[in-house]
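During the practical work, I selected for study one protein's amino acid sequence and its backbone structure tokens, as given directly below:
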Amino acid sequence: MSRSIAGIVGALALLVAGCAGMGSGGWVTLLDGETGMENWNVTGGGNWRAEDGSIQADKSTTKGASILVSKRSFKDFELYVEFWAADETNSGVYLRAMNPNDVRTATGAYEAQIWDRNPDPKYATGALVNVAAVPVPPIYKAGGHWNVYEIRAKGPEITLKLNGVQTAKANDGRFPEGRIGLQFNPNSGPIKFRKVRIREL
């Protein structure tokens, strides 16, 4: 192979590798199996770690929730999340969190709920907390198996799908942009996240 052809082949290989890192079809991988922690900051005392093909937490050194907070802020997007929760797990996926140092719905964020045993059925797994106050049918329980959240946020319109079924839809423009957050609550069951991908709209 001539030097010029070898140079072209090398350049193409680098280009392909760079594109693969960005994801196909505009998708960017924020977490994949045991990799991706460099895309997140940790708040609270959760023992977030890579184990058994996922990023997970099951203990905390503090009382409050521990959140993996994306280092980047997002406005309009589609979000794909694979998660595993126990029956008693109280967790969630935060959207457009305004304050990356204090991620809660009370400080400006939307939350796609993961909590099968929530005493308020309006905010069980599949609900959009404090926004779409419609009871989520119990068939959408997530405990004990892997699940997929597909979330679309475009302007004030937010739609949640759990395992391919739409569970919540809202029109709320209070929080137009912010971080993604993955929640672990101590005194509940473990949470595992296996894949998080995002595509900006």
